[in-house]
């Protein structure tokens, strides 16, 4: 039986010197209404979020997620999050997760039109079952993202690289992938470079080197990819950030989509063309990703 937990947070200013934020949290019924109709997160998707994987009550890579939350807030001109307050909120949510896999979401919205603002809340819920994707792999199609690799530098107002609540386009890409008979999509820039998936980072293997698209190409810098690169480097593998032509994807020795909750899903086909898949290696990656990581 899936369960849910929700905590509303009265967001503290980043220079608030309290060390105990317990009075700033209110547990709310996750199935009851909790937001006002003036919420800009619901009206315009104007806010940011994080999804944190939880395994047996341990929230993974909390600091990396908090750093990215602060980075997204900065890109979106949202008030700087008080990291200690969010850390405490995550700890409260994680304490309720129990055994198995769960997901904690942090949401920071611009708030209600004409105030109060911002609005923040945290949810925790049972994670889906991703065993099939992790063990048998996923088929992907490449989809044009419609802009070139230079756009993030030219047009920062597109908020590329921020984890905003505006995921309608990402969800539409997954629906398009399914219409084409695949499980997921890999976005390609209009000038022919692979970027990321709608909800995951892309990692390619070439011999003993693992590469991922450079985050300055308008993609989200994945916490799972960062964590895996550290792990792979400790195993003696080379890792690199590159601008990767789409033609490299089908020529890779292996490829994965990696993210906080699904973890490493090996790509077994790209646009109908089969890709090699080393099930034992993927299993070792996922064993690492399921172990407590900080
Ligand atoms: N890229 C996008 C667009 C995402 O939405 C996500 C996660 O949701 C990722 C990459 C992977 O990020 P992480 O590994 O931190 O979950």
TrEMBL record:
Source taxon at top rank: Bacteria
**GO terms for biological process, alphabetical:** carboxylic acid biosynthetic process
**MF (Gene Ontology):** 4-amino-4-deoxychorismate lyase activity
Return the InterPro entries for the record. Answer: Aminotrans_IV, Aminotransferase-like, BCAT-like_C, BCAT-like_N, Class-IV_PLP-Dep_Aminotrnsfr
The UniProt record lists the keyword Transferase: no
Presence of the UniProt keyword Lyase in the record: yes
What are the entry keywords? Lyase
Q: Which GO terms describe its cellular component?
A: cytosol
- EC number(s) stated in the UniProt entry for this protein: 4.1.3.38
Q: What class of enzyme is it?
A: lyase
The family classification in the record reads: Belongs to the class-IV pyridoxal-phosphate-dependent aminotransferase family.
Instruction: Cite the PANTHER family for this sequence.
Output: AMINO-ACID AMINOTRANSFERASE, AMINODEOXYCHORISMATE LYASE
Give the NCBIfam families listed for this entry. Answer: PRK07849.1-1, PRK07849.1-3
| The protein's name in its UniProt record | Aminodeoxychorismate lyase
